[in-house]
Specification:
By secondary structure, the protein is an all-alpha fold. Helices cover 74% and strands 0% of the residues. It has one domain.
Length: 279
């Protein structure tokens, strides 16, 4: 069973890192290993997915006005052809289409994601490799398009990139933001798209794991710890969302790139010296 203080720390780490382009799964995996848990065990992989629900609920609360506006416009356009020129109607379809790839890929490669890829070597390598992609996206793109310019093929490509986040260390927001920037979107729009595409994907993943891995959680880390972690994920997640939107409007992603590289190198040193095992 996981101790309450471990649950709090993991919940805070999840909430703070879920929407930052530094890989929440990678951070939770690292901390879980330092706490002595087997990171590729069914209860830990399920726990990692379930506590994301807290951060997602925080994002839903933060963007509630946008979500309600888009949802109402989508429903209105669905039953009224005259309303289909509405920007929010088209954006609603774009988000739905962009959310499909990760659900399909996640189900097809579920076993590999939860076992083969659960290694700190994978986390370390992908933290560094995707940092190069993020740097190119942040420094070599036009960033002239806004949210109103979003098309379904933009979100489909961003949604396909979101599938890369199934590899620990890539970062879901890092992957989606990077492709958003490569599509010419400005930093704030790319970041908001990452939020909107992440909400249905992560919420579905968390609910799916809670429903299918109930007994593994009960016999492993425990539901008490899981609920505590989810609550603290929500608290930390809300603070992280509010901070990131304000930060990105004035700064680049350079700091996140540097952090990712340093963390990846540190993990490699710890693995090479035998301080921590890979799994």
């Amino acid at each position: 069973m996981m101790d309450w203080w471990q649950a709090i720390i993991l919940g805070v780490v999840e909430g703070l890192t879920e929407f930052l382009p530094i890989s929440s799964t990678g951070h939770v995996t690292i901390i879980s290993k330092l706490f002595g848990f087997t990171i590729n065990s069914p209860d830990i992989t399920a726990f990692t997915a379930i506590i994301q629900i807290g951060a997602i609920v925080a994002a839903i609360l933060f963007f509630r006005k946008d979500i309600v506006r888009i949802a109402l416009a989508w429903l209105d356009g669905l039953f009224n052809k005259k309303r289909r020129d509405n920007v929010d109607y088209r954006f609603g379809w774009a988000v739905l289409i962009g959310s499909l790839p990760i659900g399909i890929i996640g189900l097809l490669f579920k076993d590999h994601i939860e076992t083969t890829l659960r290694s700190l070597w994978v986390v370390a390598v992908m933290l560094i490799v995707w940092s190069a992609v993020m740097w190119l996206a942040d420094t070599r793109t036009t960033q002239k398009r806004g949210e109103k310019d979003t098309k379904w093929h933009d979100t489909l490509l961003i949604g396909l990139a979101q599938c890369l986040a199934l590899i620990p260390g890539v970062s879901r927001s890092g992957a989606t933001i990077s492709v958003g920037l490569f599509r010419g979107f400005d930093r704030v729009t790319a970041t908001r798209l990452a939020f909107f595409l992440g909400i249905p994907a992560l919420l579905a993943a968390g609910v799916f794991q809670a429903a299918t891995q109930y007994e593994h959680i009960s016999n492993g880390v425990g539901w008490g710890a899981t609920i505590i972690a989810t609550i603290f994920s929500f608290i930390a997640g809300y603070a992280a969302v509010a901070w990131l939107i304000g930060f990105i409007s004035k700064h680049s992603y350079k700091g996140f790139v540097v952090y990712r590289v340093c963390l990846g190198l540190l993990i490699m040193i710890l693995l090479t010296t035998g301080v921590v095992p890979a799994v």
